[in-house]
Amino acid sequence: MLIHTASISEFGYNHRVFYLGIEVMVKIGQINKLEVTKTVDFGVFLDGEDFGSILLPSRFVPEGTEVGEALDVFIYFDSENEVVATTETPKAQVGQFGLMNVIGTNSIGAFVDWGIAKKDLLIPFSEQRGRLNEGQSILVYVYTDKASGRIVGTTRFNKWLDKTPANYEKGQQVDILIAERTDLGYKAVVNGEHWGLIFHSDVFGKLFIGKQLKAFISDVREDGKISLSLQRPGKARMDDLSEKVIATLEKKEGFLPLSDKSSPDAIFAEFRTSKGTFKKTIGGLYKAGKITIEKDGIHLVK
């Protein structure tokens, strides 16, 4: 599970490569499209330009691959510091957040399951916000350490977020990643670049660390702090839900076993909205003469 942070790409190792006349960049710790230059019994070699020929072992080579083809491969350093390729997809590339399991610790830090066979990701002690223990499931940000050139993980997110002004408009839809539960609500990463907060009073449905979903900007304070809503604010939210309710009724022969007496979970399962918003919406539809509200649920007026 991951979310991309495009603004961090400069921290990878970039080398120019030309494929079919188009200049691209080989990025360590990210998925690249590289040309096959040679086939051998144990795999294929890829054009890594400044890195030379990069081996993609045979177990990762798609059937029927020929010289001249371009493959999407993840490029990284193996345990011997050699550049290698795989068609496996990591749980997070450089510049991304991912939910990972701690599989062990030693004198330098903790290791998490990166999703790459025979290659775990190190989170040094200095990059841990609180000591990590084997078996934990944690959110990790992956980056390239400038000093060592190694790809490592961190749970200290503050130095990677809020680096630019939060130029959002109220009501704007954004992508969020739930990162932490606090006394006030849930902290979330907004568009991979900023911190935001969903207050407990605005939470409905099930939220958990690592969950990705859409949200809306409800406020950006003068100090840059962002408040989030899981529902489109104002009248637009009601209009959207009204259309969904009518469309759903039409698909289900004019009846839904939901009403203002239904549980929040039942309402959320059907419409991904809060009970309060649902009640206001069906109340408006009832007044407009579009539905009737009965003991068994709501009925479409034909």
UniProtKB/TrEMBL annotation:
Gene3D superfamilies: Nucleic acid-binding proteins, Winged helix-like DNA-binding domain superfamily/Winged helix DNA-binding domain. GO terms for molecular function: nucleic acid binding. It comes from Aliivibrio fischeri (strain ATCC 700601 / ES114). Belongs to the CvfB family. PANTHER family: CONSERVED VIRULENCE FACTOR B. This is S1 motif domain-containing protein. It holds the Pfam family S1_2. InterPro entries: CvfB_fam, CvfB_S1_st, CvfB_WH, NA-bd_OB-fold, S1_domain, WH-like_DNA-bd_sf. Residues 27-88, 93-156, 169-231 form the S1 motif domain. The lineage of its organism: Bacteria, Pseudomonadati, Pseudomonadota, Gammaproteobacteria, Vibrionales.
